[in-house]
Design goal:
The complex is a heterodimer of chains A (415) and B (266). Chain A has 415 residues and is an alpha/beta fold. Chain A contains 17 helices and 14 strands. In chain A, 42% of the residues lie in helices and 17% in strands. The chains are: A alpha/beta (415), B alpha/beta (266).
Chain lengths: 415, 266
């Protein structure tokens, strides 16, 4: 394949943590965008590095994460879920949930949206745009824009607006303009394309708060670093609870921001297994799925080289998942890198399996997870019988499921 | 057959501004595309940009997006587009420039892609999602196949970057007239004039202005500002869309002539 890095002098470093100067993790990543955006990406990267080490910025961010978002989120021992999966001899996986669903707005998305809005303010941008799939990133962005009095425009596929109507209402309530995107399948891919087109047009006044570890460099690195607080807290909480590291980390992967946020802190801890779960939709054999890492081929979408669901002509294939947040044909480039390195494992879960897990967690723990999160929970069915002893697992409970109850109700009782 | 560079040299020697129409391959269908190439060639085009339909055209506005979607729905494949070019290009005076996003190139493999388009008679390539840093992978192999890779400069491009892009661009430099996607606009931004001056200061290579040019007056204005070429896309694509093919072909012939008249002489 023709995917070797371009500048011989700029080979990627062997560290798994830092992209090279072109934003590449190995061969993945890069900046495949119209020329109009290149200076804005450079400006954003410079601002990111500048404020990363800036005490005022970090203090403001930390203060808001604590008092406005409600961090740190708990690391909760899921006792009944653990008992449910216990082996007959009493051993079994010790299941902990990192409760990102308890954040203000109900998902991990606000960690990144808040940090980016603080960056945008310092860059002097008064207009904010974002894409959204499940609506959680859109809600998080609308929230921080309301908090800072910035104009906010959210691009959302018409199909997703229908299945996540509650979130559309929340965004509008907070003063955001939600622009329906009708092209393609009317889902996250198309909303992202439309957000990028808006940015190309209004780049001089606008900051684009991209919601995942996808898109052109520096977004995959920047969003990951703003989500890394999840893993940092998890490390401290594990240390406090049992004085060691977790054995396994488990998270769902659409673009992959909640997973990278949890994994990043532990990538260089070789004893920690990293597992990402994609959406298998109606089953990977049906072609109606969003299992990019397990079923895709290397390609370029939305500015980055990564695994991609595409046909033999290199046209992007329309994905399918019951979960709007996982319904995306691409994936963050660092996940592709971790997959090829063999550092992280990726599996897929069908709509039906996710629905079962959605109900299971609700009934056993009184926690209604987002459908996205339910994909990670569902993997316990496969994982638990494979393990011996009593290893400790941390699952990123990335979002709450209130937004999904109406669509789940329709699936469970179609009449 | 004439290369893109040779075509510009020829025009320059006669102090003429080039007209570069754009159409989307396979919209409304491939037969019409084939006829349209001939119609444009006979009605004033100096070079022709042929758009390969793509599922996620990030740099395109609604008109060309919709054309690409229709074309893909009809099942248009790159191979068919290249067969068409192979058939029709020997009969054309205008060199053909392919406009394609990067993923279909990557999917085919760079070597194979270049080999196939060169064999079909394509002379140049524009890849709107391949900025200078990412374009290096295509620049050298393109030269080896006799294909010129045309790079883009945008209104947001800083000075030193303009020089670097100008130094690497082959055939000509594609100056994007506005921050935004392709599409019809009511007037040209006057900063195009400054950007043309900027480019003149750093390169002798020809410069073509595109994005947003939809009327003969725009074309004339851009020429008067010193452009070596005017590129007109959505206004052609729109005339071919949603009308019977023969009517569309008559309309693009007339429109092409009107653009040509506007830039024929000062």
């Amino acid at each position: 394949m023709t995917t070797t890095p371009l500048h011989s002098g700029l080979q990627p470093t062997h560290s798994t943590q830092h992209p090279d100067s072109l934003g590449r993790f190995g061969k993945f990543g890069g900046k495949y965008v119209p020329e109009t955006l290149m200076p804005a990406l450079t400006e954003l990267e410079a601002a990111f590095y500048r404020y990363k080490g800036d005490a005022d910025f970090q203090q403001e961010l930390a203060g808001l994460l604590k008092d406005y978002v409600g961090r740190p989120t708990p690391l909760y021992f899921a006792e009944r879920l653990t008992a449910y999966y216990a082996h007959s001899d009493g051993t079994g996986l010790q299941i902990y949930l990192k409760r990102e669903d308890l954040n203000h707005t109900g998902a991990h998305k606000i960690n990144n949206a808040l940090a980016q809005v603080l960056l945008a303010k310092r860059m002097g941008k008064q207009r904010i745009i974002a894409e959204t799939g499940a609506g959680q990133h859109g809600v998080a962005t609308a929230t921080v824009c309301a908090r800072f009095g910035l104009q906010c425009i959210i691009y959302m596929g018409i199909h997703d607006m229908d299945r996540q109507a509650l979130n559309v209402f929340r965004m509008r309530l907070m003063g955001a303009e939600v622009r329906p995107v009708e092209s393609g399948t009317g889902t996250l891919k198309d909303a992202t394309s439309e957000a990028i087109r808006d940015w190309v047009t209004n780049v001089e006044t606008t900051h684009y708060i991209l919601g995942s570890v996808a898109g052109p460099h520096p977004y995959p690195m920047l969003v990951r670093d703003f989500q890394a607080v999840i893993g940092q807290e998890t490390r401290a909480q594990c240390l406090e609870k049992w004085g060691g590291l977790p054995d396994i980390l488990l998270a769902c992967v659409g673009g992959g921001s909640n997973a990278m946020g949890l994994f990043h802190e532990f990538v260089n801890e070789p004893t920690v297994r990293l597992i990402g779960i994609e959406a298998a939709g109606e089953g990977v054999e049906t072609g109606k799925h969003a299992a990019t890492l397990t079923q895709g081929r290397v390609g370029v979408l939305h500015g980055a080289m990564s695994y991609l669901l595409q046909d033999e002509e290199g046209q992007v294939v329309e994905p399918h998942s019951i979960s709007a947040g996982l319904d995306y044909p691409g994936v963050g480039p660092e996940h592709s890198y971790l997959k090829d390195l063999g550092r992280a494992e990726y599996y897929s879960i069908t709509d039906q399996q996710a629905l079962a897990a959605f109900q299971r967690l609700s009934q056993l723990e009184g926690i209604i997870p987002a459908l996205e999160t339910a994909h990670a929970i569902a993997h316990l069915e496969t994982l638990c019988p494979q393990l011996t002893g009593s290893p400790r697992i941390v699952i990123n409970c990335s979002g709450r499921g209130d937004k999904d109850v109406q669509s789940v109700a329709k699936f469970l009782d179609p009449a | 057959m004439t290369s893109v560079s040779q075509c510009f040299e020829h025009l320059r020697s006669r102090a003429r501004c080039a007209l570069i129409p754009f159409i989307t391959a396979g919209d409304p269908d491939l037969e019409t595309t084939e006829q349209a190439l001939q119609v444009l060639d006979q009605n004033g085009a100096d070079l022709i940009e042929l758009g390969v339909p793509y599922s996620d055209p990030l740099a395109d506005g609604p008109v060309i997006q919709a054309a690409a979607t229709r074309s893909l729905q009809r099942g248009t494949k790159l191979e068919q587009v290249l067969e068409l070019v192979q058939r029709v290009s020997p009969t054309l005076r205008s060199p053909i420039i392919l406009f394609t996003y990067y993923n279909p190139i990557l999917n085919r493999g760079i070597e194979r892609f270049l080999q196939e388009i060169a064999a079909a008679g394509v002379k140049g390539v524009v890849v709107p999602d391949l900025p200078l840093e990412e374009a290096e992978i295509l620049l050298r192999p393109a030269t080896a196949h006799g294909i010129e890779l045309i790079l883009l400069v945008a209104p947001t491009t800083p000075k030193e970057r303009i020089s670097a892009i100008a130094a690497h661009s082959q055939g000509f430099i594609y100056l994007v007239s506005t921050t935004g996607v392709t599409g019809i606009r009511s007037q040209m931004e006057s900063r195009v004039k400054d950007m043309l001056l900027e480019l003149r200061g750093v390169t002798d290579k020809p410069v073509g202005v595109g994005f947003g040019i939809s009327q003969p007056e725009h074309a004339r204005q851009v020429m008067n500002w010193g452009s070596d070429a005017v590129i007109v896309g959505s206004a052609f694509v729109k005339r071919l869309a949603d009308v019977p093919a023969d009517k569309g072909l008559r309309e693009i012939a007339e429109f092409c002539r009107s653009l040509k008249r506007a830039i024929a002489s000062v």
